[in-house]
Amino acid sequence: MEFYDVVRSRYSCRKFADRQVEADKLERILEAGRLAPTAKNLQPVRIWVIQSPEALEEIKSATPFKWITCPIVLAVGGTKEGAFVRPSDNRNFEDVDATIVATHLMLAVQAEGLGSTWVGFFDEPKVKELFPEMKNYDLVALLPIGYPADDAQPSERHALRKAQSQLVKHL
Ligand SMILES: Cc1cc2nc3c(=O)[nH]c(=O)nc-3n(C[C@H](O)[C@H](O)[C@H](O)COP(=O)(O)O)c2cc1C
User: Assign residue 113 a region: left if phi > 0, alpha if psi is -120 to 50, beta otherwise?
Assistant: First the structure.
């Protein structure tokens, strides 16, 4: 799919078909995450592919969302250790890096004809309790992914975009 078609067609999909995602699609999506830029190319980011029925049940139990009935959830986190720290104010860029990786993943999902929603509303301590390997990471996103259900629809909020004039200021 052409890049601007991806951007224009993407919406938060919250209803999935009962259909598996092909391994080659998942592979390309993960590769898009790997190719994301990070500060100083330090790549202090991890992507967890949650796909087994047990792990999917566990991750669902850490969010309030009943609609997460998809075949895969990607969890994305950054770690302060080994991330770029801006010397002028000691700002650690792990969260920016992890967010860029998650954005690449989300757009690649769309390019593959799949759907996802960026989920930020989850119980992070509970997720870390369920998946101890995530302990040292700042989890920025859960991305439930799958084929959209035939009747999946964008929410009303999807269309409520600010005008470019409100978003952009030319100096
Ligand atoms: C950082 C972030 C966190 C979000 N968390 C949630 C969430 O926890 N649950 C949810 O249903 N949608 C969540 N969303 C999706 C937004 O609500 C959605 O992107 C926004 O309303 C615009 O709609 P659209 O994605 O369909 O264009 C999140 C999006 C972002 C970027």
Answer: left
* Beta-ladder partners of 144: 73
Strand (E) or helix (H) holding 96: helix 94-111
How many CA atoms lie within 13 Å of 60's alpha carbon, on the beta-carbon side?
16
98 CA to centre of ligand 1 in angstroms: 16
- Whole-number CA gyration radius for the chain: 17
Span 25-63, pLDDT tens digits: 999 999 999 999 999 999 999 999 999 999 999 999 999
**Closest protein CA for atom 9 of ligand 1:** 119
What are the residue boundaries of the structural domains of the chain, listed by start? 3-167
How far, in Å, are 42, 88, 113 from residue 147 at the CA level? 33, 45, 7
Q: Which of 99, 119, 123, 138 best tests ligand 1's pocket when mutated (most atoms within 8 Å of CB)? A: 119
In this prediction the pTM is 0.97
The CATH code of the domain at 3-167 is: 3.40.109.10
Tokens of 73: 């959830």
